[in-house]
């Protein structure tokens, strides 16, 4: 025991007598050499010098003895021993208990005991220090093992626990005392190399939905790998794609951890665990893509192009989209550090979209089997502004849903405060299920290709809706059921301030009905006609196209290529903001939103050397953070007029001072051969029949801006054929009047590039367009709060409604409430 070491007395008998059970230890620890030394000093025995010498001797002998008997010492000195531990207290009692000693002896003993006390203190402090050293060494060792295991692609089953738990997002369970016990189960399972899940194409089920240990372990690996900052370059580099995936996964994980650190519930962590891997591609049937669609996954991290079977509608991508949305909305944190991807949607809606996709897939197959030639047909519309449809590849069957169970305000966060939701919900409770009979049809708003739209009031409420009524038999006869289905599917997905909200859908008397948000302000085509010179002033045009751009961005994120942009389809809501409507020509496809982090030096865009940019993008487009002076989701715009060294492809260039991550949610690989659109708005690639993708929306976006500014479309001919020829062959010209800014023309020029691959937006979608100087200073996130150029004339609307026979005669009251409520939403 420790106390024995300091009792280096020649009075062995005394010691043996008084130290009790320690006596043996004393003897056992005394060396013969010590004893000899003591003998040699007998001549001084009894003198003070002798005592002092002995004191020093005893101390030095103690040190050497302790060193020699370190194992013993270690056994006797626990790491927890402190100054008040038994080992400390043992020496002192011995002094006071001794009664037969002379004064000198007592003094000597006193000195010895003091010295022993000091030595004990010293030793104990060393011991106490030594213990943490030992545990620290263990920890380092454990960390080292962990790192080395990770470098070899495996996670240690046991040794890594201690450090893993520090990185765990799961709150430590209080009833689990040891840190290793608090490690989530998934961490304790053996893992496999990081790259394996992403390489395993044949793996059944997305890792997003799978709860298998493998997927969870993948998170584990990523967490460890990122936390030890393992340089990617040190990994085997024979597979570049894998390397990038690992890098991305690792950094994505960091991002997620940053976001979720504030998330206390373990349920969220589970969600994170499953969403971390990149979405796996579901094996798809070629037949789906045959002739009509070639839908692919866009991945900016150089994902190699998969074979056609794999390149298809990607359910897991949508699911990821959904999950990411959920997280970002909840966390509302802004983390500019690592790349991540985010988008908006909610899980239930996404699930709907997935089932819809599956439905379309099956329907497409059925349709192709039934009538392979049908997909080659197309119809021409009557006027140059009417939509062309050449896509019959979709099914003629329609699955009807006649209740509202899937709809709730919870699914549409941006409308959650809307009184119309409450009215619908209440009516559903009251009537069981909704039907046309529960609405008063007040007025016919218009007639489209697949149905008629009515202004309707939900009986017993003051709530107005636009109900699109479609005759199922007519649709089936005219082979338009698939278009109706597509529109319904898309409407169900939407939750965006510039896109329609679908409140309900039902089928009654062979009629399919879609209950949507009503827009009293007419459409942009009508509004433009009312403008001086039949064109909008540039700020107004800028406002409208900016809102359209956000709507298109959202649609592209959801894998919807709109394909029918024109002023007639842009409705003006009662608050003066716009609503893009009419989705029956839209194309559904897969998309893989990615947040790109630029690695190039400031001033060079990583993906495009040309094209105008600024840095005013909100990184997280659905960031719910309130604007403030301290924290903003906007970065200061740091653009400069300095020209880049590289010769620009398009127009005036602005150099980026700082490169920020870019959200890319462009379905760049989606393809369709359908002849779809409106003559004056048709993109050249559609007319040439070369197949088209998402870039057609950016072409039409350019035509729209042109028309809003100049009051006419750029390639309009005397007839439709001439228009089509102009689109393909004629170069873009700008009229001399009205005067339009250079930036506006430059943007139009960038958009109306005939080769889709060189068109602005074709690579990174809206992210590229938003950075154009035309939008300089625009607050994208808050545009919905901006005052619109024009507010609809409510009195005129009220008069119309009255004429339509609105019941109750309380229209004005309703409008007042509604207008206030609507403004509150924004
Ligand atoms: N939510 C709405 N609020 C107000 N008016 C609407 C609404 N939805 C549609 N309309 C109007 O109803 C008319 C018919 O619309 P619908 O979408 O059925 O056909 P469309 O726009 O002509 O296109 P398509 O023929 O391709 O279906 C349009 O003139 C449109 O302005």
Automatic annotation (TrEMBL):
Low complexity bias (residue ranges): 201-211
Keywords associated with the record: ATP-binding, Kinase, Nucleotide-binding, Serine/threonine-protein kinase, Transferase
InterPro entries: Kinase-like_dom_sf (IPR011009), Prot_kinase_dom (IPR000719), Ser/Thr_kinase_AS (IPR008271)
The reaction(s) this protein catalyses: L-threonyl-[protein] + ATP = O-phospho-L-threonyl-[protein] + ADP + H(+); L-seryl-[protein] + ATP = O-phospho-L-seryl-[protein] + ADP + H(+)
Enzyme class per UniProt: transferase
Any GO MF annotation of the entry: protein serine/threonine kinase activity
The organism's place on the tree of life at top rank: Eukaryota
Residues annotated as domain Protein kinase: 439-775
Composition bias, Polar residues: 639-657
Family: Belongs to the protein kinase superfamily. AGC Ser/Thr protein kinase family.
Protein name: non-specific serine/threonine protein kinase
Gene (name only): LOC108854824
